[in-house]
Here is the input.
Amino acid sequence: MTGSFRKTAGGGGCVAVLAACLVALATGAEIHRNQRGKTMIPGNSVINLGQQTNTWRPLAKTTANLTDVRSIKSTFEFRTFDPEGVVFYGDNHSGEEWFILALHGGVPEIQIHKADILFSATGGPRLDDGQWHLMVVSTEGKFVLLEVDGSKALTVGLHSQKVKEVINGQLRLALGGILIDSSRLLVPLRPEMDGCVRAGSWLDLTEPWEMVEGGAELRPCLEAIQRGSYFPGSGFAVFNVSALRIEAPKGGVDIVLGGDFAQMNGTLLSLRGGDHALALSLEINNHSQTMLFTYGKTEITTSTITNKLRLIFRERSFAVSYDGDYLIDSATDQTVEQSIWREGQLAIGGLLGEEEDAVGSNFLVGCLEKVVVQGKQLDMDLSDKDVSISSHSCPVQ
Here is the structure.
């Protein structure tokens, strides 16, 4: 989380303090509940940041008195395939001064508000490679330093005549979200972070973290991960097609799906129009190794033989191909209105219901390596998705 901005005897500002205070959790963390019934975990636990049900609200937070801060350096390990999201946040005096460490385009980004300064800096190596990286946040005088794997990645200098020394009050830290309104950010970003942190040492603070989201059943951080979106069979991701800005020319709408379909079971995708009628779906049966394509009133079953499918939906026909060979190329007697690509809903990982609340069923179990619509890769973070879905990482099979 962010460092607080107060200076310590060592001369460092609290910015690094906040930033450094946050993350590092080891598996097998001792979980207990406080008097308010909130789940508490040690600050050195392993924690999965990708399980929030509220976009901006942090997953975990802690509070300490500034007078208890004895270190100006924090270290933690961080791993992700997600190119954008909040790693940690810190502030003092309930947000008068704050610090955010995030990723933007896979690269570390620091945003700071202090007195009359609102500052943003991006730099260092890309971290969205699925590898564990050792990160160190510290302060040296008026500078905030970020080190990655032993090398300086980002140095931020701050100076203002309006800055006052902060020697008392409270320091707040948070993981995977922020404690201020997002409108105060200098650079807008998507907060969701499908990543893990562990082995953190936060300014020598010993206060446990309070889980803002969820209960004691925390999603584990897997030992080995690969790129993709993982669906555990308990929910799906829904996109409003209008937000995807799909153009449906006469040549049709092109969707490419990638993954090891032999290891999947359930609905890969479904689409329904503004009238809530189901227009198309693609379901896979792992036991029979077959796929069922439904387009309008037409149903066709084919063998599951591939790990990459291209679906082309036209007004009166649809085709499914693999490496240029057509598995299905069929006309349909039912016209599917092209307006569905402007007004409908596209679900990944579940079969949409025919009611307004889109209840869904037959949820997918498996890893989709990619979903490309009209040449554009879909980001599950932009959907209305079940909290169980990992947007950017899958377990290694």
Q: What stands out?
A: Confidence is low (pLDDT under 50) at residues 1-28. The longest helix spans residues 14-20. Residues 292 and 357 are 24 Å apart (CA to CA).
